[in-house]
Amino acid sequence: MSANHLARRHAGRSILVTGACGVTSRTVVRALRRSPLFAQTRLVGMDVCDNPFGLYEGLYERIYRVPPSRDETRYAPMVAQICAAECIDAAIVIPEPEVLYWAEHPMPVPSLLPPPAFARLAISKATLYDQLQGSGWVPRHAMLTREQIAAGQRGGLDGWPLWLRDGSAGSTSGKGALCVHGDAEAAAWMTLNPRTTAFMASEFLPGRNLACLLLFHQGRLLKQGCYERLEYFMGHTAMSGVTGNISKGRLINDDAAVAVSLQAVQALCAKTGEAMSGLVTVDLRTDADDRPKITEINLRPVAAASAFAEVPGANLIEAWLLATLGEPEAVGPLEVPFPPHNRMFRDIDGLPVYVADHHAPALGDAVLPPVRHFQPDTLHLEGTR
What we know:
This protein is an alpha+beta fold and 385 residues long. The protein is built from twelve helices and 17 strands. The chain has helices at 3-11, 23-34, 53-56, 72-85, 96-104, 116-123, 125-132, 146-150, 183-192, 255-272, 305-308, 316-324, and strands at 14-18, 42-47, 62-65, 90-92, 141-145, 162-166, 178-180, 198-203, 209-217, 220-232, 246-252, 278-286, 292-298, 343-347, 350-355, 372-375, 378-381. Mean pLDDT is 88; it is low at 372-385.
């Protein structure tokens, strides 16, 4: 089937995006708009609407306010009403609690999500680490109560520094995270995070900060892509240096990161007896010898997903929606090579910018304005000179 025929057919689709006002969901929409297949697809959002900016940005035809998925008496009936009223063909589900809910419950429209038992294992960092302990794919770790930290206990972990963070299921953006160098720092950090009931302590990994996105359909890996986080928004204001959203990154081809990520996902599915589906993001850090270890598995893509959409053949969100709509064979290559000097830049008041060939100018050099392709909700820079 030709690309033009696919584009015409998908222009008549109606797609529901959950968590519509969130950073990741809006990035997903921008990636779809970069796809020639889905540039004209009708998009409807739903969200708890805690972030009003997303309501008025103009990425969706309309956004419905819904209760959180834990409100089962109201959530499921309202989703069904929206899907019926808007003639929804498929859903892209982003927030992890919603991913778990959709995976565990019959829903009115198709979605391509991780299977439920896998999702329950991955959404809890402590459970994930326990399941993969001894594999060499995760750092040494221990769950610590506030009482244990106050008593100077480390759960059997030797040596400093340790990475300390919130250990609750579904916590994101480095919540409660800090590299601590002793008992006093650990106790002080606990005091500064009074709402965190349990912390995960793990060996500190000093190397590269990576993410590996893997798209599966009925047990088959359809597409993969990696990127490296280089700098974070307002990182200097957070004691951990991690704020959850990168300001600078780059797309990379990293066979070692993919191998560890794929092995871990396959091992978890072997434990649960499920065939893997959906798009997951495996976060990794490398140790002092540049060996990648998994820090968490997210049941969704991440905010850097729009950068992949700028490279022909690498749009993971396009591939995700194609597979969701029953067209996995149209996804394209498993992986494409990325330009060696590419960068992704993000700013508080601007749309994400992808630069295919970035070189920092020397003193006295002039940078010519790049060629710009404007669409209603995205900006693409071909490169700099």
